[in-house]
Write a sequence for this structure.
C-alpha cells in the first residue's frame, strides 16, 4: 500500500461498503444525481424567464438597464476565482497537504463572502430605487410597462442562487472543520471533492444568470 | 436469535435508526395512516353523493374534502408507499446488500416526509383548500386560505421523494452482490430504478412550480397572472411536466411487485426478462413527453394536442409488453392461488381496464367529450387503486412474513380479496357509466337521473371498506401471534428469501453469493 492511501480499515469506511473505493464512487454518484435535481430546479426558473422575456421583450430589455454591469462582472470574476481556489483545495486534499487545504478552503469561503457582500450592495441599491419584485415594485419614470416582471425574476433567480451560495459556504465550513481536525488524507477526501462539485455547480448557474440578467438585448 | 426488530429496543432505537428495514417499516405505518385518512375523506365524499341534494356537508366542504382526499392519497400515500416502504425494506435484501447507499440520507428522507406531512395537516386544520390536488391557477393564486401552506408542504415532501430516488439509484449501481450483473437483478429492482429516475428528474420541477405559485401569492410576481402579463396555462404545463411522470412514479413500483409475485406463484421463470426491464425504462422515458394530454381543452395548439395524443398512445406499448409477458409467464405454469397471487391476478384485470380506458382519454375527439367527467375519475382509480394499490396489497401479502416474521390467515385473506374486488368494481365501474352519460367530476350536487349509479357506487365503497377492515384485522391479529414464518414461505429464489424472517440487523449472516437467477426455482434447471 502506497503512502498516503488509507488502509481498508479506515475509520471513515461505513459498514455497508466493502472498500473505500466503492464508498467514494457511490458518494460521487449520489452527488451527481443531486446536482441533476439542482439543474432541474433552476431549469424551471430559466424556462419561466425565457417565456416571459420573449413575451415582454421590450420591458425586459428596458428593465435590465437598471442593473449594474460592473458589479455583475466583478461578482462573476469573484465566483470564477472561488472555483479556482476550490479546485486547489481538492488538489491539496488529494496530496495530503493539510495546511494548503485549509488555506484554500478559507480563501473559497472568503470569496463566497465577497460575492454575497457585492450582492448586498446591489440589492440595497435596487430596494432604494423601488426596483422590487411583483406588487412591491414602485420605480418611477419607466418608459415601457411591465418592467416589474423582470425584477420578479431577477430577485427569484439571484435570491435562490444566493441561498445556494449560503448553503455552499455552510458545507465548506463543515469540511474546513473536518480538515482542521485532520480527518482527510490522500485515501479519504471525498467530502472535499463532493463539496467542490456542488460549489462548481453554483458557480456555473451564475455563469448563466449573469448574461441572461445583466447582458440581455 | 435476534433480528432487526428485537436487536435493540426503545423509541430512540427507532427514531435514530439507520437500518433500511426499520426506516421501511416506519414509512410503512406512516403511509398506511395517510391511506386511512385519505380513505375517510373518500367515504365521506361517497356518503354525501348518495343524494343529489345537500345532505351531510355543504358544497364548499365537499370541495375541500375531494381536494384533501386527492392530496393525501397522492402525496402522502401512493408516491411514497411502495418505494419508500417496500423498496426500502426489500431492495437492499434483494441485491444482497447490507443497507442502502446513504443510510443517513434515508433517515433524513423519512423525517422530511414527516415534516411535509405535518405542514400539510397544519394546512388542513387551518381551513383546508378547495383547489383540487392540482392547484390550478388563477384560482389557486387569487383565493385566500391555506394554499401557500399546503403547497409548501408538498414542496417539502418532494425532497423526501428525491432523497429516496437518489438513494435507490446509487444502491442499485454500486451495492449489488458480487457476481450480480444488471440482468441478474430481480425485476423489482429494475422497476424501482425506473421510478427513482423519474423521482430525480421530475420532482425538482414540481418544487420550483410550487415555489413560483407561492411567490405569485405573496409578491404577485406576475408569471401566472394574465392581468399582469403572465400566463395561467403555463402553470398547467409546469405542473403536469412533473405530475404526469409522477403517475408513473406511482404505477412502476406496482408493476415491479407484480413481476416478482407472478413467477413465484406460477413456479416458472419470468417470460421476457429483458423486455420487462426495458419496458420500465421506456415508460419512464415516454412519461416525460405526454404531459400535454391533460390539457387538450386548455387552449394549447391543435398541433401540440395531436402530438401529445400520439405520444400518449406510445405508453400503451411498453405497458402491453409487460401484461403479455406476465400472462406468458403464467401460461402452463403451476399456479398456486395464495393471497399475493390473487392480488396479482386482480391487478392484471383491473390495470388492463384502467390502461385501455386511458387510450380513450388520450384520443383527442373522445377526450373533449369525456374530459372532467366521472369517466376520468374511474379511469385513474382503475390505474391508481386497481393498479398500484392492488399491487401494493400483493406486495404486502408477499413480504409480510419477511417483514414481521408472522403468517396471516389465508382464509380471511381470500374473503377480504373477494370483497375488495367486488367493492372496487361496484364503486368504479358505475363511475365509467356515470362519466360517459355526462356526470361531471368534482360536483357536490347532481341531476336526479344520476342517482341510481351514484348509490351503487357508494354501496361499492362500503363493500370495499369492509374488505380493507377485515384485512387490517387479520394482519394486526398475526402480529400478536408467535413468530411462525419460515425463511422462505413461498419458495422464492431472490435473495430476500435466503435470510431469516425477519432478517437479522445486518441482513445476512454470510454475504450472499449469486448461484442462480432470480426466477430459477427448485428444482433448478439453468445454472447462472
Amino acid at each position: 500500500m502506497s503512502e498516503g492511501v488509507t488502509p481498508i480499515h479506515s475509520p471513515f469506511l461505513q459498514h455497508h461498503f466493502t472498500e473505500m473505493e466503492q464508498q467514494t464512487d457511490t458518494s460521487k454518484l449520489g452527488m451527481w444525481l443531486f446536482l441533476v435535481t439542482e439543474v432541474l430546479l433552476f431549469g424551471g426558473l430559466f424556462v419561466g424567464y425565457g417565456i416571459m422575456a420573449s413575451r415582454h421583450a421590450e420591458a425586459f430589455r428596458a428593465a435590465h438597464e437598471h442593473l449594474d454591469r460592473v458589479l455583475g462582472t466583478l461578482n462573476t470574476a469573484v465566483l470564477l476565482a472561488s472555483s479556482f481556489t476550490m479546485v486547489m483545495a481538492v488538489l491539496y486534499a488529494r496530496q495530503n497537504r493539510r495546511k494548503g487545504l485549509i488555506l484554500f478552503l478559507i480563501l473559497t469561503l472568503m470569496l463566497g463572502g465577497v460575492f454575497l457582500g457585492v450582492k448586498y450592495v446591489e440589492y440595497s441599491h435596487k430596494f432604494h430605487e423601488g426596483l422590487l419584485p411583483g406588487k412591491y415594485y414602485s420605480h418611477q419614470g419607466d418608459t415601457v410597462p411591465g418592467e416589474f416582471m423582470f425584477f420578479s425574476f431577477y430577485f427569484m433567480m439571484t435570491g435562490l442562487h444566493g441561498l445556494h451560495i449560503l448553503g455552499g459556504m455552510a458545507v465548506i465550513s463543515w469540511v474546513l472543520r473536518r480538515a482542521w481536525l485532520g480527518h482527510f488524507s490522500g485515501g479519504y477526501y471525498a467530502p472535499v471533492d463532493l463539496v467542490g462539485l456542488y460549489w462548481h455547480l453554483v458557480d456555473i448557474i451564475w455563469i448563466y444568470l449573469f448574461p441572461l440578467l445583466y447582458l440581455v438585448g | 436469535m435476534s433480528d432487526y426488530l428485537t436487536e435493540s429496543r426503545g423509541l430512540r432505537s427507532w427514531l435514530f435508526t439507520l437500518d433500511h428495514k426499520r426506516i421501511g417499516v416506519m414509512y410503512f405505518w406512516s403511509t398506511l395512516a395517510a391511506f386511512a385518512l385519505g380513505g375517510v375523506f373518500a367515504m365521506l365524499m361517497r356518503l354525501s353523493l348518495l343524494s343529489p341534494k345537500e345532505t351531510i356537508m355543504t358544497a364548499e366542504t365537499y370541495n375541500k374534502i375531494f381536494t384533501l382526499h386527492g392530496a393525501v392519497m397522492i402525496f402522502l400515500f401512493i408516491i411514497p408507499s411502495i418505494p419508500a416502504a417496500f423498496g426500502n425494506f426489500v431492495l437492499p435484501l434483494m441485491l444482497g446488500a447490507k443497507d442502502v447507499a446513504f443510510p443517513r440520507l434515508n433517515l433524513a428522507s423519512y423525517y422530511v416526509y414527516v415534516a411535509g406531512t405535518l405542514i400539510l395537516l397544519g394546512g388542513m386544520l387551518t381551513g383546508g383548500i378547495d383547489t383540487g390536488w392540482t392547484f390550478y391557477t388563477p384560482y389557486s393564486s387569487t383565493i385566500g386560505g391555506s394554499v401557500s401552506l399546503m403547497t409548501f408542504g408538498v414542496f417539502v415532501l418532494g425532497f423526501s421523494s428525491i432523497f429516496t430516488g437518489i438513494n435507490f439509484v446509487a444502491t442499485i449501481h454500486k451495492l449489488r452482490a458480487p457476481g450480480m450483473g444488471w440482468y441478474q437483478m430481480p425485476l423489482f429492482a429494475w422497476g424501482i430504478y425506473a421510478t427513482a429516475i423519474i423521482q430525480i428528474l421530475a420532482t425538482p420541477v414540481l418544487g420550483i412550480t410550487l415555489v413560483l405559485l407561492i411567490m405569485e401569492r405573496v409578491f404577485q410576481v406576475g408569471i401566472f397572472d394574465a392581468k399582469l402579463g403572465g400566463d395561467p396555462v403555463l402553470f398547467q404545463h409546469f405542473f403536469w411536466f412533473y405530475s404526469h411522470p409522477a403517475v408513473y412514479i406511482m404505477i412502476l413500483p406496482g408493476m415491479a411487485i407484480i413481476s416478482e409475485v407472478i413467477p413465484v406463484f406460477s413456479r416458472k421463470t419470468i417470460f421476457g426478462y429483458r423486455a420487462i426491464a426495458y419496458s420500465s425504462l421506456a415508460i419512464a422515458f415516454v412519461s416525460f413527453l405526454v404531459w400535454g394530454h391533460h390539457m387538450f381543452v386548455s387552449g394549447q395548439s391543435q398541433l401540440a394536442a395531436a402530438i401529445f395524443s400520439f405520444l400518449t398512445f406510445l405508453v400503451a406499448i411498453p405497458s402491453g409488453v409487460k401484461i403479455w409477458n406476465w400472462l406468458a409467464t403464467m401460461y402452463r405454469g403451476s399456479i398456486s392461488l395464495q393471497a399475493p397471487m390473487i392480488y396479482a391476478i386482480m391487478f392484471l384485470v383491473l390495470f388492463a381496464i384502467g390502461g385501455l380506458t386511458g387510450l380513450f382519454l388520450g384520443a383527442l375527439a373522445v377526450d373533449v367529450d369525456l374530459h372532467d367527467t366521472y369517466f376520468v375519475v374511474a379511469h385513474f382509480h382503475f390505474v391508481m387503486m386497481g393498479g398500484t394499490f392492488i399491487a401494493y396489497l400483493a406486495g404486502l401479502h408477499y413480504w409480510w412474513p419477511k417483514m414481521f416474521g408472522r403468517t396471516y390467515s389465508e382464509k380471511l385473506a381470500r374473503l377480504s380479496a373477494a370483497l375488495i374486488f367486488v367493492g372496487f368494481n361496484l364503486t368504479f365501474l358505475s363511475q365509467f357509466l356515470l362519466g360517459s352519460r355526462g356526470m361531471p367530476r368534482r360536483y357536490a350536487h347532481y341531476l336526479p337521473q344520476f342517482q341510481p349509479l351514484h348509490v351503487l357506487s357508494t354501496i361499492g365503497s362500503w363493500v370495499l371498506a369492509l374488505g380493507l377492515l377485515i384485512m387490517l384485522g387479520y394482519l394486526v391479529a398475526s402480529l400478536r401471534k408467535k413468530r411462525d414464518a419460515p425463511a422462505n414461505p413461498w419458495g422464492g429464489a431472490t435473495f430476500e428469501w435466503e435470510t431469516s424472517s425477519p432478517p437479522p440487523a445486518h441482513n445476512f449472516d454470510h454475504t450472499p453469493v449469486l448461484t442462480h437467477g432470480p426466477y430459477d426455482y427448485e428444482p433448478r434447471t439453468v445454472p447462472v
